[in-house]
Design brief:
This protein is of the alpha/beta class. The chain is built from five helices and eight strands, in the order αβαββαβαβββαβ. The protein has a five-stranded mixed β-sheet. Strands 1-7-6 form a three-stranded antiparallel β-sheet. The termini are far apart. The model has no long low-confidence stretch (mean pLDDT 96).
Length: 157
């Protein structure tokens, strides 16, 4: 039986973007990004996490390597805000339509300003959440950026 499609997968298909889905085992709590990379047998340099922040104007999405941390000052500058802060876990679903551990930069309730970490320029393909815990999608980095009208900036510590 095939894996049901997520919103992220449907959007990539509508946009004609090729991707590979990767399923991984998980328990009640979603694993951290380094664990996801290990479970997939992938180099963590190519596995990215999606972080959602709030500024004075709106929510902002940052896509960074799983082993890196978001620099909130650089992130704010990248979206022309004075400051941004991580949204509380309880607000993730309301803002994005996704849950913690399954938040994809593709297919959120609204197309928020999305910034990919500049490290992505060193990768041909990256892996991001497929829109649910236990599922990742791998695609050409430039196609992913284009799919969300994203930009690239230096946003990690």
């Amino acid at each position: 039986m095939s894996e049901p499609k997520t919103n992220a997968m449907r959007i990539l298909e509508q946009q004609g973007i090729a991707y590979i889905s990767h399923a991984y085992p998980h328990g009640e709590e979603p694993p951290d990004g380094a664990t996801v990379a290990r479970l997939l047998g992938e180099d963590p340099v190519t596995v990215y996490k999606t972080l959602v922040t709030k500024g004075s104007k709106d929510y902002y999405v940052f896509v960074i390597p799983v082993l890196k941390e978001l620099d909130l000052k650089k992130a704010a500058k990248a979206v022309s805000e004075k400051s941004v802060s991580m949204i509380p876990v309880k607000d993730i679903n309301k803002a994005t339509g996704y849950i913690r551990g399954g938040c994809s930069p593709i297919g959120m309730k609204k197309l928020y300003k999305t910034v990919f970490a500049s490290e992505c320029d060193e990768c041909a393909k990256i892996i991001v959440s497929g829109g649910k815990v236990g599922l990742q999608i791998e695609a050409d980095v430039h196609d992913l950026i284009k799919s969300v009208h994203g930009t690239v900036a230096d946003i990690t510590l």
